[in-house]
Structures are given as structure tokens and as C-alpha cells.
Amino acid sequence: MTAPSLTFLNMTGDITISWDKENAPKIIEMVKKKMAEGYHFFTIKTIPIIRMKRKVKVTDKNVDDLDTLLIDDVEFERLSSQLDDPDVAAVVSEGHAHLSKRKADKKASKAFDVVKRVTDAHEVLDGQSVALRPVYGG
After folding, report:
1. Which of 124, 137, 105, 107 is nearest to 32 (CA)?
2. pLDDT at position 71, please?
3. Which residues of the chain are modeled with pLDDT < 70?
């Protein structure tokens, strides 16, 4: 079974996180906060993801073959500090979620195949989802 994940679409690039069951309460808390801020959440069709952890050398040749990606502490902190969303950065830095990567699949589209809009934070935990920031005019 593929781990649940949530991809935030934003200005600096997509951020995908995944988590374990014991961290679900922290993820629900963050999702509820984001919903209150006006984010829209959608469930998507499940595709394989790679969890990024710490401590392994990765090259362009081996990144798509990995099931787990380890990153050294300095690089991990650099990546976490550059996340566009402080709430997402916090759950990652505190160890409640893992940075993840949508696994390259020649059969799967690079686009997100949306299944439905989600209005209950608990539904985000059931599979894979995508979050969109509220759109503002100006």
C-alpha cells in the first residue's frame, strides 16, 4: 500500500509530504489550519511516491530507482528552510512528515488526476491529495 501523501502546489514548486499513522493527528491539525486559511484540497489518483530521508548520495542516474531517498542533515535543513509554507516546513522539521517525491512512472501522467474536492481534514489522511492556495485578485 502506498503511504498517504499531500502535495502543496505553490510559487516555488510543488511540495509533497507523507506521514506515518502515529503522526496523523499533527497532519490533521495542519490541514484544518490550511482549510481555515482558504486552501482547497482534492483527492487524487494514487501513484507511487518516494520518501526522502537522510544520509545517502543520490545521482541523476539512481534517483528514479530508489524507494527511499536519504539526505544529509545540512542538505535536509537547507531544503526545509526553503519550503514556501511555514506550516509544512514545521511538520517536516519536527519529524511529523517526510518530504517525498512523486515517483517517475512512464505510464502515469505528470498532471494530477483529481478524484474529488475534500472538505473534511480526515479525508486527506486516507490516500493522496493535493492542496491549492486560495486565489486572490489584485
Report:
1. 124
2. 66
3. 1, 11-13, 48, 50-72, 79-82, 102-111, 138
- Cell digits of residue 98: 517526510
| Residue (of 16, 12, 8) closest to 102 by Cα position | 16
User: For residue 49, what is its C-alpha cell?
Assistant: 511516491
Question: Which of 120, 136, 137, 135 lies closest to 41, judged by CA?
Answer: 120
Q: 15 by DSSP, 3-state: which?
A: strand
Map 53-69 to HEC letters.
Answer: ECCCCCCCCCHHHCCEE
- Identify the pLDDT of residue 128: 85
- In angstroms, the first-to-last Cα distance of the chain is 43
pTM exceeding the 0.85 threshold for the entire prediction: no
Provide the 10 A C-beta neighbour count for residue 135. 7
